[in-house]
Amino acid sequence: MFGRERNQAGVLIELKPAYAIDPTNEDDLVAARNALWPIVEEANKVAPAFSRIFKEMILIASPNKPLPRAGKGMVMRKAALEVYAQEIDDIYAEVDDAAESDSAVLPMSWDVDGVIEWLKEQIEDIQSSDSEDTPFSVSEDFFAQGMDSLSATILRRRIVGAMFVASSSGSHFDNDSEAKTLKAAQLITQTTIYAHPSIEKLAAFVAGVVQDPERFVAVASRADAVDAMVGKYTVGLGETATHKAGSSLGSAPVDKGNMVVLLTGSTGNLGAQILESLLRDGRVQKVYALDRPASVSLSQRQAERFEDKLLDVTLLSSSKLVPLECDAAQRNLGAAQEVYDELRSSVTTIIHNAWKLDFNQSLSSFEPNVRATRNLVALARSSAHTASLRFVFTSSISSAASWDQSLGAYPEEIVLDSRYAVGNGYGESKYVAERILAQSGLNATSLRIGQITGGAPNGAWATSDW
């Protein structure tokens, strides 16, 4: 495998002598890649997203250039990559230049409907190893359906490639439109996919820029999008509070020997540490650990995370731990009515720690997280303990990504100018949640967290931070 310091991985394969081909023969190369593809697809299903192999990145070794081997016949990886350094550079160049390839498949038309159908075909082809025959929704978020950053890169190349081919061949365009199409292709950047994360949204953008790249405006400014989401999820709440984060809004003292905590995100690196602390805390009577359903049970996920961090797994057998597999973005947090009523009557503290971690995706991709926050606010506002209930939200320093440092340190309060939150969808969505809490009337605290180091007892950092 190769790909160090590249944006995607590839694999160098030496075929057995009986199956050897001339890799410069395009027909033989295509046939070999197709024959190998089912095996690669199986590997892709269990491989991390960053190491998935696309068909274009399969490099076949030449019989005239055998891979160097050690005495016992083992391939010498470093030496092999050096021998094939030029071919590796060439394959990356070919993929990068694929946007100008005559083999690009074009939409039947460049209106919204035509582009929707074309995008659907392209995405299902790109996602073939993950799709399991499940149709790709045109309205749902790409990334919620399994698309990753490498798939987004390939999709962008196919869009740009189709535009280049269409303009150079005159397909679908008159002579006056060729320059417009070339301009439109230049507007399809990698962030385009993340900013329009569904087939319908992306099709509207693509059709718009093809029609008039000079005047077409796809979305309002990022700050306007943030404000729009704040407005959407603060309907029904009071006026914006200008209180400092953590200040009290009509709270009464909490009985600290009888705390009932609702914790979201207990299976993450930080969440596991919080859960462990709560289970050890004698002041805590009960912990409701609310996490989304998954293919593996919540209890097993919690145990695996505790084992990974060398935390005391026996704590998970505590009678005060109540696992809840629910989707907080759904009505009543996705819980049965009797469970929801129990939460309303008993919870004295909410620690909202669950959030998708992805710095590439746009604000709209985090809307389920924002909706979950609003649903938790609704629970707290209807609680029997509203006056004394504490709401703690694990926000992020990314919520202040565009702060003007000439103004000094970012204030420890809610900053109402959303321009300072613009940076990436993750931080923008955290800022939206802070604004929701500021208007909630609750005793709310937002903790703007930065880099999280390894914690006790073993000091191990999250592998995703390496």
UniProtKB/TrEMBL annotation:
One Pfam entry name: NAD_binding_4
InterPro entries, alphabetized: ACP-like_sf (IPR036736), Adenylate-forming_Reductase (IPR051414), FAR_NAD-bd (IPR013120), KR_dom (IPR057326), NAD(P)-bd_dom_sf (IPR036291), PKS_PP-bd (IPR020806)
Ketoreductase domain sequence ranges: 259-455
Keywords: Phosphopantetheine, Phosphoprotein
Residue intervals of the Polyketide synthase-like phosphopantetheine-binding domain: 116-210
GO molecular function: phosphopantetheine binding
Tagged with keyword Phosphoprotein: yes
Gene3D superfamilies named in the record: ACP-like, NAD(P)-binding Rossmann-like Domain
Entry keyword annotation includes Phosphoprotein: yes
UniProt-recorded name of the protein: Carrier domain-containing protein
